[in-house]
Specification:
By secondary structure, this protein is α+β, with helices and mostly antiparallel strands. It is 33% helix and 37% strand.
C-alpha cells in the first residue's frame, strides 16, 4: 500500500492489488477513509468524512491528479 502523498492530516495511497479497477486513490485521516476515481476525479466512497472535508480533499486530488495517475501507471505496468 504505497503512500503517494501526505498533505496536512491526509495520507493518499493505493493498494497494489487493485490494478483491475480504474485508476483511483485512497485517502486516510485517522479512522476516516475515502476513495476517489481519477478519470474524472469523483468521490467513489467515504467513511466518516464530512461533506465539507470531502470537498477540500477532492480539490487536493484534482491538484495532484497527474502525479497520482503517473504513479498508478508505473505500478500497473509492473
Amino acid at each position: 500500500m504505497p503512500t503517494i502523498l501526505r498533505n496536512g492530516p491526509y495520507r493518499f495511497y493505493f493498494y497494489s492489488n487493485e490494478r483491475a479497477e480504474p485508476p483511483h486513490v485512497h485517502v486516510q485521516r485517522e479512522r476516516f477513509f475515502a476513495k476517489f476515481w481519477l478519470n474524472p476525479v469523483v468521490l467513489a466512497s467515504s467513511i466518516r468524512f464530512a461533506s465539507h472535508e470531502l470537498r477540500a480533499i477532492q480539490r487536493i486530488v484534482e491538484d495532484h491528479r497527474n502525479n497520482f495517475l503517473e504513479v498508478w501507471n508505473e505500478h500497473a505496468g509492473d
